[in-house]
Amino acid sequence: MPDHRVAVTAVDFSDPQLVDDYLDLLDAYARDPMGGGVGLTDAVRTRLPIDLASNPAAHVLLARDASGAVGMATCFVGYSTFRALPLLNIHDIAVLPRARGRGVAKALFAAISGLADRLSCCKLTLEVRTDNTVARQLYQRQGFVPASCSLFMEKPIGRRNADPSGELL
């Protein structure tokens, strides 16, 4: 019987193996249709660990089982002006397809909730595609509900949409 115990730890950006594991998981998520279907560019793979390591609001978690790295979450501390308290936004969360259904997401959410408690956050937030019914059901089982007062919108800004090599992100 395979060992499906999952350990979740913070990514130490001074550890090249943890950084590579995180980037590989993020790339797998980006390549997935629910992540947009396009992998990370070399420029993003180079810049992202430096940027995250120097951002005090960033918290990156890695889930491992006996087979290695199988899931990750990228979270950022924000601030609720209506409650005058910090919040924790789950910007990315993903589990490799081969590890789904083994409690990896549950372990990641438990670690994220613990982090939010330690940071005295008033809530967790996340964004999910409307057509990703599997993820939406998972999030609902974790206690997430649709925000009643918002619609997520975005506006690309000039050159910030291209990496240093000129490739579009």
Descriptive key words:
169 residues; alpha+beta; five-stranded mixed β-sheet; globular
Summing up helix and strand content along with how strands pair, one would put the structural category as: alpha+beta
Provide the low-confidence segments as ranges: none
Proportion of strand residues: 15-25%
**Largest beta sheet: what is the strand line-up?**
1-2-3-4-5
Share in helix: 25-40%
- Rg, Å, rounded: 16 Å
Total DSSP helices: 4
Largest pleated sheet: 5 strands, mixed
> Quick check: average pLDDT?
92
Shape: globular
Total strand count, please?
A: 5
What is the succession of H and E elements?
Answer: EHHEEEHEH
Distance between the termini: 42 Å
Short overview:
The chain is built from four helices and five strands; from the N terminus they run E-H-H-E-E-E-H-E-H. It has 169 residues and is α+β, with helices and mostly antiparallel strands. The chain is globular, with a radius of gyration of 16 Å.
What does this structure look like?
With 169 residues, the protein is α+β, with helices and mostly antiparallel strands. The protein is 31% helix and 23% strand. It is built from four helices and five strands; from the N terminus they run E-H-H-E-E-E-H-E-H. It has a five-stranded mixed beta sheet with strand order 1-2-3-4-5, with helices on both faces. The protein is globular.
Fold topology:
Blueprint lengths: L6 E4 L5 H16 L10 H12 L4 E8 L2 E13 L4 E11 L8 H15 L5 E3 L6 H9 L28
Parallel strand pairs: 4-5
Antiparallel strand pairs: 1-2, 2-3, 3-4
